[in-house]
């Protein structure tokens, strides 16, 4: 298509540059003539430099036979109407108004193209940020508490697919509850953002697809448009290990402090106890059995012996000597412990049995201390189990093959849920005559072996202590 332009201002220059740069699909336009009364008009100057036919009178166009299309860009409709009356019938024409319309459409199309490209690039960056660079759990949540987007890391943790999460309420996915989080113990970070207009933080307990509880630190950041809150970006981090580490450190510090105190107190009490016990027994030798004084002295002796037992427990707890580890057969250690505790179980008519996995690898442990642990847990189980009850000690290889596991399980009275977090604290006991040191000592022994002790219990349905001892802790 051969084009002649009437009016060589900036619009003419724009048209010339557009034709030069743009790759047309259906037409091949080319400007063959330019007319303007001003020889210095930008389009006129460029056309002259390019060797294009130029004229100060557009009527010269009507003498040419190589023009297919005339574009009027003067802004004067009288000139356009004059062109319409003089041009040949095979020559098409366009006024400056129609040209401006096409340019506006072209400009809009270009802006749309740039916006689309920018949107594609932004989406690609968003996907990289959501699923590549950020390894925490990320969700985009609307003000209605519905999930708009969620990253792959969080989906894997929850054990669900994207289609199962997007469009559902956040509190349904993370807490399994129909209502939004509320209250002092479970502050809703989205509600805080709505209230303050600023980012907020909270710590929640989430339950994953395996039913395990995890401590999660949540940071919530507002998404606003023209000052109106549209939603939030919620970044969550699993801090369960950090909290467990802090608890263990606090427990260790407490144990060390109590151990030092216990050692000092035990030594100070032991000597006068020995004097009391010896004196009461000597006096009893000069008295007849059955007399009131003799019986009173028996009470003194028995109570002194009970105090001595407590003192011994204090000293055992305070010592916590370094473990002397050697390769041992865990099953043999369990069998020896059963022999030492079977009499107490039989006395209460309790069935004490073992379910030991054969051919377990040997493990580097302090045999005496692990045996002490097994005996402590078994005796506790015997005390907590009524006549006719059952206690079983089992052993196995851990699921990952890196540790040995033994379990002491009973069907006794169980432990109240409020007490579960306290049972390893020194001096905590629910027994009438207990010292509260047995489980504290047991916990310390397992920690010396870089192991782990877990407890599961339900009042009325018994208790299970699960001890995990890593196979490589002796290296």
Strand order in the sheet with the most strands: 3-2-1-4-5
Which superfamily, in CATH terms, is the homologous superfamily of the largest domain?
A: Histidine kinase-like ATPase, C-terminal domain
Report the CATH architecture of the largest domain. Answer: 2-Layer Sandwich
Q: What is the class of the largest domain in the CATH system?
A: Alpha Beta
Biggest β-sheet strands, sense, barrel? 5 strands, parallel
Number of helices: 13
Look at the structure and give the mean pLDDT.
Answer: 83
Residue stretches low in confidence (pLDDT < 50, at least 5 long) are none
Output the radius of gyration: 44 Å
Gross morphology is rod-shaped
Measured as a percent range, the helix fraction is 40-55%
Number of structural domains: 4
Order of helices and strands: EHEHEEHEHEEHHHHEEEHHEHEEHEEHEE
- Helix/strand/pairing category: alpha/beta
Write a structural description.
This protein has 475 residues and is α/β, with parallel strands linked by helices. The chain has 4 domains: 2-106, Rossmann fold, CATH 3.40.50.720; 134-238, Beta-Lactamase; 243-319, Orthogonal Bundle (Helix Hairpins); 326-470, Heat Shock Protein 90, CATH 3.30.565. Helices cover 45% and strands 22% of the residues. It has 13 helices and 17 strands. The chain has helices at 10-21, 42-49, 77-86, 96-133, 152-158, 162-165, 170-175, 189-196, 240-285, 292-319, 330-347, 367-384, 438-448; strands at residues 2-6, 30-35, 53-55, 69-72, 92-94, 137-142, 147-150, 200-207, 213-225, 228-238, 326-328, 351-356, 363-365, 390-397, 403-410, 452-457, 463-470. It has a 5-stranded parallel β-sheet, sandwiched between helices. Strands 7-6-10-9-8 form a 5-stranded antiparallel β-sheet, with helices on both faces. A 5-stranded mixed β-sheet has the order 12-14-15-17-16. The mean pLDDT is 83.
């Amino acid at each position: 298509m051969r084009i002649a332009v009437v009016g060589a201002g900036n619009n003419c220059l724009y048209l010339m540059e557009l034709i030069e740069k743009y790759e047309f699909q259906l037409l091949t336009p080319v400007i063959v003539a330019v007319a303007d009364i001003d020889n210095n008009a930008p389009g006129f100057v460029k056309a002259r430099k390019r060797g294009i036919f130029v004229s100060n009178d557009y009527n010269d166009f009507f003498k040419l036979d190589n023009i297919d299309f005339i574009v009027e860009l003067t802004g004067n409709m009288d000139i356009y109407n004059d062109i319409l009356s003089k041009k040949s019938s095979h020559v098409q024409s366009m006024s400056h108004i129609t040209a401006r319309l096409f340019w506006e459409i072209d400009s809009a199309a270009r802006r749309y193209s740039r916006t689309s490209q920018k949107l594609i690039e932004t989406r690609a960056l968003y996907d990289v940020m959501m699923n590549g660079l950020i390894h925490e759990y990320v969700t985009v949540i609307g003000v209605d508490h519905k999930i708009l987007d969620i990253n792959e890391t969080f989906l894997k943790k929850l054990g669900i697919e994207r289609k199962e999460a997007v469009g559902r309420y956040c509190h349904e996915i993370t807490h399994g509850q129909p209502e939004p989080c509320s209250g002092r113990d479970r502050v809703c970070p989205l509600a805080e953002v709505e209230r303050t207009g600023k980012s907020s933080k909270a710590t929640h307990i989430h339950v994953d697809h395996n039913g395990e509880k995890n401590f999660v630190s949540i940071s919530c950041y507002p998404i606003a448009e023209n000052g109106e809150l549209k939603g939030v970006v919620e970044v969550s981090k699993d801090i369960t290990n950090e909290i467990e580490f802090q608890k263990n450190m606090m427990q260790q510090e407490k144990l060390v402090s109590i151990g030092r105190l216990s050692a000092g107190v035990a030594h100070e009490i032991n000597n006068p106890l020995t004097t009391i016990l010896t004196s009461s027994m000597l006096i009893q030798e000069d008295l007849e059995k059955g007399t009131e004084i003799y019986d009173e002295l028996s009470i003194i002796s028995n109570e002194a012996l009970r105090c001595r037992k407590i003192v011994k427990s204090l000293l055992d707890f305070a010592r916590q000597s370094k473990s002397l580890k050697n390769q041992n057969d865990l099953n043999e250690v369990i069998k020896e412990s059963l022999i030492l505790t079977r009499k107490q179980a039989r006395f209460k008519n309790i069935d004490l049995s073992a379910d030991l996995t054969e051919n377990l690898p040997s493990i580097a442990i302090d045999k005496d201390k692990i045996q002490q642990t097994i005996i402590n847990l078994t005796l506790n189980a015997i005390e907590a189990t009524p006549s006719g009850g059952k206690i079983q000690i089992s052993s196995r290889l851990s699921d990952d093959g890196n540790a040995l596991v033994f379990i002491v399980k009973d069907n006794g009275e169980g432990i109240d849920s409020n007490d579960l977090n306290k049972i390893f604290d020194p001096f905590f006991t629910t027994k009438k005559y207990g010292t509260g040191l047995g489980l504290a000592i047991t916990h310390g022994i397992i920690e010396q072996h870089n192991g782990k002790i877990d407890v599961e219990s339900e009042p009325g349905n018994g208790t299970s202590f699960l001890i995990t001892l890593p196979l490589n802790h002796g290296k």
